[in-house]
Each structure stands twice: as C-alpha cells, then as structure tokens.
Design goal:
Layout lengths: L19 E4 L6 E4 L2 E4 L3 E3 L4 E9 L4 E7 L5 E7 L10 E2 L4 E4 L10 E7 L9 E2 L2 H5 L18 H13 L13 H11 L9 H11 L9 H13 L3
Antiparallel strand pairs: 1-2, 3-10, 4-9, 5-6, 5-8, 6-7, 7-10, 10-11
C-alpha cells in the first residue's frame, strides 16, 4: 500500500530520527527507534484512507497518540501531538485528513512527529516496519519481503545485498546469503576500493560513507540499520 507523507511538503526525517538502531536522545542507550521523527510544529495528516483504531494518551511515552487502520491490515501511528485529536475511534479518514498539530507531549525533547507503520494484528506495539518504503514509492524491494531493520547483519541482509550487487554487475556468485570472498570483492568494487576479498577498515569506512553514517570502520547496529533501510528503500 502506498502512503502519503503525514508531514508538510519540504519537511524531512531528522538525521537521528530514522528507523532502526540508534542512541536514544534521552537515555543515551543504544535502542531500536520504531518509527521516524520529523521536527517542528505543523499540521499532521493521515497517511492514507482508513478508520481511526485508537486514540490515547501516554505521559511517559507517545503523549497524544492516534492509530489508524488501513487496508491490508496496515496501521499508521502518530505520537506527540500538541493537543488531543478531535477524531474519535471509528471515524473514517482520507489521506490528508487533519489529525492534530505536532508537539512535544510524552517522552520528547522538542516539537516533532514520531510516525510508525505497523503490520501486526490490531497494530500492536512491536509489529513496526520501516515506514520509508511505504512513503517513497511502491512497496517493492530486491528481496521477496522487506528486511527487518534490526541492526543485525543476518543472512537475509546478506542475501538482499548480494541481489543488489548482482543486479548492478558487481557480484558474480550465488545469491545465498552466505558472504565470502566473492561477496566481499563485489562490495569493494561497488564502493570503489581495492578488491582483495577481505573486509578491512578501508572497505568498512567506504561503505559507511555510501550509507551516510560515521565512517569509523565499525559495522555496528547503526551502520547495519542504515544498510537495511537503504536495501528496503531501493536506494543502493
């Protein structure tokens, strides 16, 4: 399902507000960010047609919260409204229906919208997926289903990366999700460094620069989350 951006045109996701692993701005701990944040105070609108499924308040969490159910058991969630929405559970909305003004209620460091897409039964917490593929274009990816952005360099992530590298002519091996010298040389060819088939600091930093994360040569949860997001969004 294609969704519309629930924030005004010209607004962008905060650099530290992307989906996936990050250092929490309040606790300072490494923690999964289950949605995307867009700073400012502005009208928040429904990302698609649907039915209001939940309206709530959480002083230590999302503040003024709204959850909308869309087609195909897809849910969108909106946190930190400046005031309670006038919408009620059961109200039908269209894409662009006003929800509330973004604010800083709940656990927040400033005015912003925290936006989630969920796919679980009743849109329960923890069933989140990366929202950006739904907003940036048709929900397609090089793999059969979207990757979980969990910051772990697992077999599905390797398989998706091999698929992309093969499609761009860099990888000649089998797409099996098992990395080896062929995969490593393909990465090195893609990022433009020497192709020795060994993933060292130079290759790691080069990939990090491609992903727009700090090039410290360590492929930790932040780097892998950025890679998984890029694979999901088809921007590699």
């Amino acid at each position: 399902m294609r969704l519309s951006q629930p924030w005004p045109k010209g607004k962008k996701v905060n650099p530290n507000g992307k989906y996936g692993m990050r250092r929490h701005p309040i606790s300072g701990r490494m923690k999964k960010h289950r949605g995307v944040d867009v700073a400012g105070q502005y009208p928040v609108t429904s990302a698609g047609a649907g039915v209001v499924h939940h309206v709530g308040w959480s002083p230590n969490g999302g503040g003024h919260t709204v959850r909308i159910k869309h087609a195909n058991n897809l849910f969108t969630v909106y946190y930190h409204g400046a005031q309670a929405t006038r919408l009620r559970v059961g109200d039908r909305v269209e894409a662009g229906t006003f929800i509330y003004t973004s604010g800083t209620t709940g656990a927040s460091t400033g005015n912003h919208l925290h936006f989630e897409v969920r796919t679980g039964r009743n849109g329960q917490w923890g069933s989140d997926v990366d929202p950006m593929p739904y907003l940036d274009g048709p929900v397609t990816a090089t793999q059969p289903s979207l990757l979980k952005v969990n910051g772990k360099l697992d077999r599905n992530t390797w398989r998706a990366l091999q698929t992309v590298l093969q499609a761009s002519g860099h990888y000649k091996g089998v797409v099996d999700g098992v990395p080896g010298p062929f995969t490593y040389r393909a990465i090195q060819s893609w990022v433009g460094v020497g192709q020795d088939g060994v993933i060292g600091p130079i290759t790691r930093r080069a990939l990090q620069r491609r992903l727009g994360v700090k090039p410290d040569g360590v492929w930790g949860p932040i780097t892998i989350s950025a890679l998984q997001r890029a694979l999901n969004e088809g921007v590699l």
